[in-house]
Every structure is written in structure tokens, then in C-alpha cells.
Amino acid sequence: MSGRALFLIGSPKGLKASNSARYGEGLATRLESEGWTIGRVDLHEAVATADGSDGLCRQAQEADLVVLIAPLYVDTLPGPTLRALEILAERSSSEAPDRATGLAALIHCGFIEPAHNKVAVALCKEFAQQAGWMWRGALMLGGGGMPSKRARSVLEEAGDALARGGAISAEIAEKASKPTMPVWLYILGGNAMWRRVAKKRGISPQDLRGKPYA
Amino acid sequence: MTTKTGCLLNGGDGAVPPDVDGLTETVADLLRARGWTADIQAVRTRRVQPCNGCFACWVATPGICIIDDAGRDIARRVAQSDLAVFVTPVTFGGYSSVLKNAVDRLIPLILPYFKRINGEVHHVPRYERYPRLLAVGVTEEGCEDAKDVFRRVVERNSINLHSPKHAACFVHPTDENRDAILSAAIEEVLG
């Protein structure tokens, strides 16, 4: 099976510099190899203008499959990504589609446990239900974008399933659901990373703990 | 005795129904009746740019968002309040995009460091105290799946924003007993 897939990138870092886009390419490669046509939309850009919003809706309407990829922001989706869903839901209810658009989601977070993304996935599923789109499953990734063999393998499997016209199964999602390293090690390494990044910008560990609104 | 402050973030888009403005005023009146000060922030009327994910608020200007707009001011008001109230149309089980842009800008209130809380990794608090959290969702009758997601969102927010206590309640646009629902939710979160 082939068709038209539209990747909605919800990171403010856009199509070039974001982990969302990188994960998207992992899925898109498999779809492309099966003959799918791929479109990509930077949601932060799209919702900023009326033309961008119109273009988003037009491309979504033409797509057989929409793949939403976003980082976890305060437990759900970033504000502009939510705005995109609001716009798409409004248009879906006012312009009855001749076929149900499929929606798959990939939510990723900076915590080591992918389970933090569960509520955001539930929100995407709720959107699909309200917009009359067909739910095609979701992946949850943790680890702050750190590359891992497991993530690559899961993206390939999920991409293959979507390319065949199927859904991301619970079995595939389950493979991505466990932390890719010991939690204690992630905490240790993560905290050291933040101190290092702050130091490069002239911020001491003491300054980093500043309380400007106390 | 210092007067306690509720910071109310109105996440409505101005449409009536569902009259999120009126609902926010009702919550404010109920707080005032308890001797509280109500600080209402209608997010749509203020310039709140989306979070750009730069983490400068953690590693360059600790505790302060690098974007100098109303989002920064709202974060300060929330941090200095005793109760944060989110009033919003229930949107796919979450907050409206208007409100979410402001909520995304609250991350300067926590530290980048990680620690385990109840067996799960979360960010470390920046401050000694945080406001309690009340979320008022405006939705049609029914919509139980969306309500369930909303409750989970509020619970997760309370963990990640270190709220010592939280509550969520739902009001329908035509509810005749909305004051009673709101009073009970305020009692729950402040009790």
C-alpha cells in the first residue's frame, strides 16, 4: 500500500533542528521506501498565520495518514501544537471529509521514563475521536532525544506497520516503553549535563538555583 | 495576617458560550468571599509568545524566561500566589491552546535537575513553596473520556509544578448549580 503521509512537527525547533523532526525521518524513511509521498509541516510556523493554517488544513485533508510528532511540554502538547489540533478539529467538523484521515502520534520527553507521555497520547487520541479521524496508534519515547538502538528499531517497525496501512500496535509501543538506561544513571548524567551547560554560559551551580520570584 | 492571593488564568477565547470570562469572575467572587485577593489574567488579552524550548530559563537566566512578554509576568504572578486557578474549555481533554501557551511558560519555576518523586523522575523544585492548583474545565455534559484525560493532566501538572494540593472540576455552559460545583472544588483544594 502507498499513499500520502503528512508529518506534523510540534517542536518549536522546527523541521531542521528538532528531535521531533529526527524521529519523524526515522518513520518517513520506511514509508518512502514503500512508495508513500511525504509532506512535512512546522506547526509553530503554520499556526502563526492564516495562510499557514489554511495550508495545514489543506495538506491534512489530502493526506491518508497524519503523523503528529511533538515533545512533551508540561505534561501535554506544546501550546502551538494544541492550536493546530483545534484548527484541524474545527475544519474537520465544518468540511465533512470523504474518507477518514488516519492519525498516528509520537510523543517524546526529557525524562527517562517514556510513561510520562501517556496523558499527551490520550489527548491525541481524544482529538482523533472528536475530529472523526482514525486512530493509528502511538509511540512514546523518553531520554531527551538521546539516540538509542531500541528507538531506531522501534521507529522502523512502526514505520513499516504504518506503510502497510496498519497501526502502531501495542506490541511495538511496548518495546519503546521502558527506560533505555538505569534511572539513577540518567539522573546523575542529566544533572551533570545541566551544570556543564550552565557553566558554559557563565552560570554557577549556586546561581542556577536562583529564586527571582521568592 | 497576610491576605492570600489566587492567580486565575482565564484560558477562554472570548466566545460566549461557553463564557469562560463569566466563570472566571464567579471563581474570583467565591475567593473574595473567603477574604482572598483575586488576580485575574485573561491570557488571550495579553501577549504570550509560545515557549521556544531554549532552556535559557534554566541555564542562562535562572528562573526567568528569556522572552520578555506577558508570559514572564504571568509566571511571576503564579509563583507568588497561594492558589493557581486554570479556567479553560476542556480541549481534547487538556487545556485550551491559549492557556497552554501560558502554562508552558511556567517551567522557569522549577529547576532543570532531576530527582525521583514517588518512584518517577521529575524536576527539582526551585522554590520552597508553590501554589495549590485548581483547574476548572468547561465542557458539555457527558464527554467522560475527555474529563478523565483532564483529571490526569491536572494531577500530572500538580506533580511537575510541585503544587501541594490540587483539584479539578467541570462546569457545563448551562449549569444552574455551577456556583455550588465551584464552591465545592475550592473547598476541596483549600481544605
Q: If you consult CATH, what is the topology of chain B? A: Rossmann fold
**What is the number of strand segments of chain B?**
7
CATH architecture of chain B: 3-Layer(aba) Sandwich
Our count of helices of chain B gives: 6
Q: β content of chain A, as a range?
A: 15-25%
**Element order, helices and strands of chain A?**
EHHEHHEHEHEHHHH
> How many discrete structural domains of chain A?
2
Q: What percent strand of chain B?
A: 15-25%
CATH superfamily of chain B: Flavodoxin domain
What oligomeric state is this?
A: heterodimer
Q: Whole-Å distance between the termini of chain B?
A: 18 Å
Q: Uncertain regions of chain A: pLDDT < 50 for 5+ in a row? A: none
Per CATH, the architecture of the largest domain in chain A is: 3-Layer(aba) Sandwich
Judged by helices, strands and strand pairing, the structural class of chain B is alpha/beta
> Whole-Å distance between the termini of chain A?
59 Å
Strand numbers in spatial order across the main sheet of chain A: 2-1-3-4-5
Count of alpha/pi helices of chain A = 10
CATH first level of chain B: Alpha Beta
Structural class of chain A: alpha/beta
The biggest chain-chain interface is: A-B, 50 and 52 residues
**How many separate domains of chain B?**
1
Task: Please summarize what this structure is.
With 214 residues, chain A is an alpha/beta fold. Chain A contains 10 helices and 5 strands, in the order E-H-H-E-H-H-E-H-E-H-E-H-H-H-H.
Q: How would you explain this protein's 3D organization?
A:
With 214 residues, chain A is of the alpha/beta class. Chain A is 51% helix and 16% strand. Chain A has a five-stranded parallel beta sheet, sandwiched between helices. In chain A, strand 4, helix 6 and strand 5 form a beta-alpha-beta unit. In chain A, helix 4 crosses helix 5 and helix 5 runs parallel beside helix 6. The longest helix of chain A has 18 residues. Chain A starts with a strand and ends in a 6-residue tail after the last helix. Chain B is built from six helices and seven strands, in the order E-H-E-H-H-E-H-E-E-E-H-E-H. The mean pLDDT of chain B is 96. Chain B has one domain: 3-Layer(aba) Sandwich (Rossmann fold). By secondary structure, chain B is an alpha/beta fold. The longest helix of chain B has 17 residues.
